[in-house]
Amino acid sequence: MKFGKVENPELIDFTLPKDHPDTQVVLNRDGKKSPLNVYVGCAKWNRQDLKNFYPRGTKDELEYYSSQFNCIELNATFYRIFPGEQYTKWYDKTPEKFKFFPKVSNDISHLRRLNDAVYPIVDRYLEATSNLKEKLGTIFLQMHNNFGPKNWDRVVRFVEYWPKEFPLAIEFRHTDWFNDEKVSEELYHLLESNGIANVLVDTAGRRDMLHMRLTNNEAFVRYVGANHQSDYDRIDDWINRLSEWHSQGLNNIHFFVHQNMELESPLISAKFIERLNKKLGTNLKIPKTLHKTNDTLF
């Protein structure tokens, strides 16, 4: 994942911004005394990307990956709509409580850009994706960098069309969604009133996407490391912030680790899970890696 990549990450201020004031309002209103649901994973299970993760002789990558992690941010579905049978195969290969968080097809988000022609494609996408049954987590829609607020009417129509039985998160990348306060407030209200999660992206070159505004009881975080020692310091800040949100009522944490070079993702994920377990008292399995979790590659 090269989005937000910079040449000198040591020059970036990675401090997490203060919360948007309405985040606490949402959590206080929607938070209930229910079990904390935490899912932490990588973006893909491809052996070529996740070096130093698969033991020699691993025959089925998804089967092994799902024995170590409790979820996957399924980026493969961005590039094509797989037949329903493929989803069924993925379902059958994974443990009982494993979850998939698939990305919406780029035919919907990037090529047709939420125009009126996308709705039959949305139906086809959801029909196939529903084969994941109870293992289907939040689906997320990622819009192109140049998809700005001039397309507001398309966003409204899409949100109104989306079947509410499928949890949805949306990632907006154009800066004007966040830099114009009137626009951002209208956007947050739309997401909030429809129970849609506002994706938080932590990447070096786009600090403006860390608006720290939750719109429902779900922290959907896409953490992009810079293949730099600072990656490990940054996860502590996230653990502290998630702990604060949990104390305010947050019940759903969905945290996905990316890298500009993905080989480090399992190691960062393992370290994140280890520290999160200590902070929140969770009991997530710490993935095995070919490096010890107290090591780094830097």
From TrEMBL:
The organism's place on the tree of life at top rank: Bacteria
SUPFAM superfamilies: TM1631-like
Annotated PANTHER family: UNCHARACTERIZED PROTEIN YECE (PTHR30348), UPF0759 PROTEIN YECE (PTHR30348:SF9)
Protein name: DUF72 domain-containing protein
Biological source species: Euzebyella marina
Source lineage: Bacteria, Pseudomonadati, Bacteroidota, Flavobacteriia, Flavobacteriales
